[in-house]
């Protein structure tokens, strides 16, 4: 601590240079926080997806429906513990820009297969008792101010009632939370029997099936068995793990993780060169002062530590401010603006700790070479340059 005034004095020597170097580090770690949050937004569904859940969709496309009769046949496959289904609704609430997912699900089995959706018992009971009931996620409720007991009118874009009306109204029976922070709570789930009844009881199909298996290690084998049941039928199936499906969906926009890593690597390498050059220049300008310090009894280790401390101070100041602004202002603001497209948008704790470690590593790496040069500096050679 007694050397802090000396370190601070050295940083103030060239104020403009120090400020711009700190700003460069600041921008780098602000970008780090944003890009990691984007990567997390695209991969959080992959991480949360159950390892013991399979997704059964139409072999041609997810938008092609499957017969409602497939459920009992899938459940009869040895190794299958439970089966539920869901159907995309695709309606509009007030304005097309107010996008959020709406799915018709089987009321009796859906929540059992998705334990990450936490719904109070009394609200679940109310949902089961109300044919027009729906449960909505906490994020969706906060976004539009929905409360339990509200009635949500939605204009259907796919399902028009027999009387020609496309207006469907849902009663908010409950608001579910996520068991984990990465759980998507931006959706609305309503009862499939309400949709079927509204369509005159003639649907006869569902969008996809979700299957819970006893042993995740048998996922590939059970997927083949399920698809084999419907081979050569008018509606053949394609079964895969829910995690694999979520990953393939995320990959449709590219390998976000690889893009983030390459961009951050390029940025950090450039900033490493810039900061290292700043420290090297600072050491060259203080050659005579370093010689005086050594003459006064400063050991090689103390000289090394002083220069490294300056480099670390720049990294901690710039990087720390960048991370704090990212998690405190930048990411929440962008998350609010992008919630229609990226409902899960935050910087995970593990990534934050990685950022702190990178700050320390960055500061050490940038100052290591100049510090080593200062440490090896001979007093006679340094004074000769004065």
Pick out its properties.
alpha+beta, two-stranded antiparallel ribbon, 11-stranded mixed sheet, 386 residues
Overview of the structural elements:
The chain has 386 residues and is α+β, with helices and mostly antiparallel strands. It has helices spanning 4-13, 15-48, 70-75, 110-113, 121-129, 138-144, 192-198, 219-229, 242-251, 256-285, 287-295, 300-337, 349-376, 379-384; strands spanning 53-58, 66-67, 80-88, 91-92, 102-105, 117-118, 133-137, 151-156, 167-178, 188-191, 205-206, 208-213, 237-241. The strands form 2 sheets. Strands 1, 3, 4, 5, 6, 7, 8, 9, 10, 12 and 13 form an 11-stranded mixed sheet that branches. The chain is elongated and about 95 Å long. The model has no long low-confidence stretch (mean pLDDT 83).
Helices and strands in order, then pairings?
Layout: H1 4-13, H2 15-48, E1 53-58, E2 66-67, H3 70-75, E3 80-88, E4 91-92, E5 102-105, H4 110-113, E6 117-118, H5 121-129, E7 133-137, H6 138-144, E8 151-156, E9 167-178, E10 188-191, H7 192-198, E11 205-206, E12 208-213, H8 219-229, E13 237-241, H9 242-251, H10 256-285, H11 287-295, H12 300-337, H13 349-376, H14 379-384
Parallel strand pairs: 5-10, 7-9
Antiparallel strand pairs: 1-12, 1-13, 2-11, 3-5, 3-12, 4-8, 6-9, 7-10, 8-9
Coarse shape: elongated
Roughly how much helix do the residues carry, as a percent range? Answer: 40-55%
- Give the overall pLDDT as a whole number: 83
The fraction of residues in strands falls at: 15-25%
């Amino acid at each position: 601590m007694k050397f802090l005034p000396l370190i601070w004095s050295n940083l103030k020597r060239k104020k403009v240079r120090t400020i711009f170097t700190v700003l460069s580090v600041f921008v780098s770690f602000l970008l780090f926080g944003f890009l990691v949050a984007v990567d997390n937004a695209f991969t959080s569904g992959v991480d949360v997806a159950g390892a013991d859940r399979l997704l059964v969709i139409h072999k041609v496309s997810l938008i092609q429906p499957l017969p409602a009769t497939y459920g009992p046949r899938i459940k009869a496959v040895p190794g299958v513990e439970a089966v539920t289904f869901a159907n995309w609704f695709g309606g509009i609430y007030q304005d097309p820009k107010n996008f959020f997912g709406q799915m018709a699900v089987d009321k009796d089995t859906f929540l059992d297969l998705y334990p990450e959706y936490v719904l109070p018992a009394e609200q679940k009971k109310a949902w089961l008792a109300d044919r027009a009931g729906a449960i909505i996620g906490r994020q969706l409720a906060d976004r539009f101010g929905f409360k339990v007991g509200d009635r949500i009118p939605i204009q259907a874009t796919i399902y028009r009632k027999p009387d020609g009306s496309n207006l469907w109204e849902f009663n908010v029976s409950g608001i579910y939370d996520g068991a984990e922070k990465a759980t998507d709570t931006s959706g609305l789930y309503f009862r499939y029997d309400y949709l079927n009844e509204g369509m005159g009881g003639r649907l006869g199909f569902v969008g996809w099936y979700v299957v819970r298996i006893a042993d995740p290690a048998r996922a590939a084998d059970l997927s083949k068995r399920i698809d084999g049941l419907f081979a050569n039928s008018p509606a053949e199936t394609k079964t895969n793990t829910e995690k694999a499906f979520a990953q393939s969906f995320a990959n449709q926009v590219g390998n976000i993780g690889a893009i983030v890593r390459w961009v951050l690597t390029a940025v950090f390498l450039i900033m490493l060169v810039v900061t290292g050059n700043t420290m090297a220049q600072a050491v060259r300008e203080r050659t005579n002062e370093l010689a005086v310090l050594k003459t006064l009894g400063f050991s090689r280790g103390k000289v090394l530590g002083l220069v490294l401390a300056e480099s670390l101070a720049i990294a901690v100041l710039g990087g720390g401010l960048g991370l704090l602004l990212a998690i405190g202002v930048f990411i929440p603001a962008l998350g609010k603006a992008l919630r229609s497209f990226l409902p899960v948008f935050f910087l995970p704790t593990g990534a934050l700790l990685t950022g702190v470690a990178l700050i320390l590593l960055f500061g050490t790496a940038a100052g290591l070479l100049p510090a080593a040069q200062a440490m090896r500096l001979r007093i006679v050679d340094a004074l000769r340059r004065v």
